[in-house]
Amino acid sequence: xxEKFTPEQISAAEAQFCKNCEFMLGVAKLDQLPDxxxxxxxxxxxxxxxxxxLLNALFNQRKLAKTSSTPGRTQQxxxxxxxxxxxxxxxxxxGYAKAPESMVKQWQQTLKTYLRGRPNLRRVFVLIDARxxxxxxxxxxxxxxxxxxxxxxxVLTKADKTSAAELQKTLQKSAETIAKHGAAMxxxxxxxxxxxxxxxxxxxxxxxxxxEN
Length: 213
Prior knowledge:
By secondary structure, the chain is of the alpha/beta class. It has helices spanning 7-16, 51-58, 101-117, 136-148, 164-178, 199-207; strands at 21-27, 39-45, 77-82, 86-90, 121-129, 152-157, 189-190. Helix 1 packs across helix 6 and helix 3 (101-117) packs parallel to helix 4.
């Protein structure tokens, strides 16, 4: 199977990710959403799957996105302005074991409304822990995205925390699962924020969504 991106595209993506990306605002209510002047890509996943760590790793920063070992730290939609070309959105983690029920319901409603109604949302990267694979909560989000006709792509995180054989099993099972979902893209990315694995391909995917592309 041919590679999806050429070496030149990979190199251009690396150069793009050396440019400025900064935190804009956190949105707790949908009336706080910024104007849809740029395309958006969002990062979704279960609590503590490593969304903030992945964002930091993509830009080789430690404090671009706040990280925490406590699930549910990201309690709002956090918007980042990437080079005045595209918004990156760190979504609230789902499966918030330690959050109050009322807060969980509020986050869920905000998340559902955002995913269904944001006109400039180009893609959602659904992050899955490579050690555990796609769980029930992930499939619920995937179905929501299917229903909203929002394109999404599976990104395995913490790929360095499992063996090569187990990673291949997770990749295979994930491919079988997404084949049943209409809005899912077929390409699955395996990444590690700590070991910098797979970040080049994720950067290229994001850059393929920039306006000039």
